[in-house]
Structures are given as C-alpha cells and as structure tokens.
Amino acid sequence: MKQTRSTIITCAITGSIHTPSMSPYLPVSEEETVKQAVGAAQAGAAVLHLHVRDPNTGKPSADPELFLRVVKKIEAQTDAVLSITTGGSAKMSVEERLEAPTLIGPELCSLNLGTMNFALHSMAEKPREWKHDWEKPFLTSTKDGFFKNTFNDMERIIKDLDARFGTRFEFEAYDVGHLYSLAHLVDRGIVTSKPFVQFVMGILGGIGADADSLMLMKDTATRLFGNDIEWSALPGGRAQMPLCTMAAVMGGNIRVGLEDNLWLGPGELAQTNAQQVRKIASILAELHQPIASAAEARQRLGIRAGS
Question: Membrane-spanning residues where (predicted)?
C-alpha cells in the first residue's frame, strides 16, 4: 500500500490585510508576533509566514530591524521554516519590501506573481469602532489602487535573493493567469528549482474561494508544472477550513493563520494562530493524513542546507 503523502502546514501569523480593530487577538507587538509564531509551530506548523507591524499603531511595517529581531527570537525557540514576506503591503515600494529579506537572508520568501487589484475596501463598510485613524483610510484606498508586482519586480526579487542567499520561494498565485506567469519565469530560466505554489483564494481582485476554483488552480498547475509540483491552498475567510481540508485530501499542502482568517468558527474569533493550526491538524488526524515536520518541509521544498 502506498504511503500517504504528508501535508505541510504553513501558518501566516499577522499579515497586512486585517487591522487591529477587527480582532483584539491579531498580533501587533514584537512579543505577540513571536509568541504566536512559536505557538503555531508547536501546534504543528512546519512553515511560519512572517510580516511585522508597528507596535504602537498596528500598521503593517517594513522595518528590517524589527523583522530581524522577530526572526532571531523565533529561531531561538523553534526549527520551523521561516518564510519572510516580499509582498509586505500594497502601500510599500519594492525597495521597502526587499529591505528585510536582504538583511536576513531567509531560506524561504513569499513572492506575488502579478500586479492586481488587491481590494480590501469592503472590509471598511462594516460598522465598528476604529482604534487607529489609519485603519479605515488604509482599507478604503484599495478601491482605487493596485498591488504592483511586475515581471521586472519578480525577476529582481528572485535573482537577488536566490543568488545571494539560496532563498527558495513560496509563489503566491491569486488567479489562474499567475500560474502562466510562473511558467514563463520557469521557461526563461529565472526560476530554476521545482516551484512551491500557493493558491491564494478569496481576495477581491483574484480567484474566488470555492471548490471549483481550487480544482481549476490545481489542474492548471499540474498541466503546466507536472504531477510532482509542491502546491498549497490558502483560502481566505470562512472558506479556510473546508478548502484546506479538501486540498489536503487532494494531496496538497495548506496554509492557515490570522493573516488569512480571523475566525475559528462561526461567530468565534480565533484567539491564537495555534488554535487554527490545532483545528486543521485535528481534522487531518481524523482523516489519517500525516503532517510534515519542518525537516520534511525543507527537504520537499528544496531548501539548501545552511540557507
């Protein structure tokens, strides 16, 4: 009998989408981010996807020194793979987004596969008491903005980080066309290793978070890159647990975390990232689906020793 392939769980700790007024549990400070990241790793996450925030306002930050402190503290407490964002926020320039990765020299980075409408404005329409004056304008401005990730930007990030540090990438595909963009980068020899593709589902401006969309992304990726591709599902909001379960059953990997979804279940805010990791790990255990260790994740993602 063929052994079931283990599932790599990624946990995205805080991100740059949600704002502090949406949940009191969203990590903001350096200490909160570190504590929640370590807790997620202990709960079963092999990969930790990291952003940082201004500790006073909770606004997404590109501060490379803050990133470095957070990374060093997490590394001292867990062997999880640390995936540093190169996306940061749609409000940041590519230069700002690269400051932390070029200081840290990470083994894994996220990389967004195309310029897109990254629309969060509907999140500002829900009545709420705002803790900070930046939050609502930050969200509403996305109705008339876009997230810049040109081919030149992508090539620059890949070539720089791979050549200098041997960094591997979590390629974030928000729609089917992004998979063809990745295929172009592979065909041109810009991407030289087996891709690790993250299907980002549920952002307004990208593909929806539903079962048909997941099947379409998987089928397209398989056709373009082959059956042995490493792929992962990142469903936002309420679709997180159902589609992560579906992806794991299909042989894929999964991503959870407060960056993508603030809730544990209907009407119940997740109080920690670890709660979401434990929930999906429990579901996978019921399905007799093994969970990958950090060492397994490094081997399968082609992360070089010492990177």
Answer: none
Question: Number of structural domains, the chain?
Answer: 1
DSSP state of 231: E
Residue 4 lies in a domain: no
- Taking each helix axis from N to C end, the angle separating 273-286 and 240-249, rounded to the nearest 10 degrees, works out to 40
Instruction: Let me know if residue 1 belongs to a domain.
Output: no
CB 239 within 8 A of CB 201: yes
CATH of the domain at 203: 3.20.20.70
Strand (E) or helix (H) holding 180? helix 176-187
Closest CA to 259 of 157, 140, 120: 120
Size (the chain), residues: 307
Give the distance from CA 18 to its chain's centroid: 14
Using one digit for the tens of pLDDT, what is the confidence trace for 123-149? Answer: 999 899 999 999 999 999 999 999 999
Domain annotation covers residue 306: no
User: What does the CA dihedral 145, 262, 124, 140 come to, rounded to 10 degrees?
Assistant: -10
Range of the domain at 213: 9-301
Is residue 259 assigned to a domain? yes
pTM of the model: 0.97
